[in-house]
Design goal:
Layout: H1 15-27, H2 36-41, H3 45-48, H4 67-75, H5 80-95
Length: 99
């Protein structure tokens, strides 16, 4: 039994069609080739994707908190997780041993 692909087949242009496509693209005033300076200034797409990397990257963990703690912080509104993090960081700075 042969497997039928759901993807449409790609039909590559002939050499003559490719030359016509290239000539039309070069004649389009809105699609001029990039200058060497423009090409040099380009940044790979992967460098632009997602949130910028933080110097103080946070780590995703799964933690169970008491209901009253969650209720309190959630009642403070948007950004409650950041406020919990700030409270914990303050605790750590007050209780960590200093050399």
């Amino acid at each position: 039994m042969s497997k039928i692909s759901k993807r449409p087949s790609v039909v590559m242009p002939t050499l003559q069609e490719d030359k016509l496509i290239t000539a039309a693209a070069k004649a389009d005033p809105d699609a001029q080739p990039l200058t060497p300076k423009q090409l040099k200034s380009m940044v790979p797409m992967r460098a632009l994707r997602g949130r910028p990397k933080s110097e103080n990257a946070k780590q995703l963990v799964s933690v169970r908190y008491s209901q009253e703690v969650l209720t309190f912080f959630k009642s403070t509104g948007e950004g409650w997780q950041s406020r919990m993090d700030e409270v914990l960081r303050n605790y750590v700075s007050r209780h960590s041993r200093r050399a």
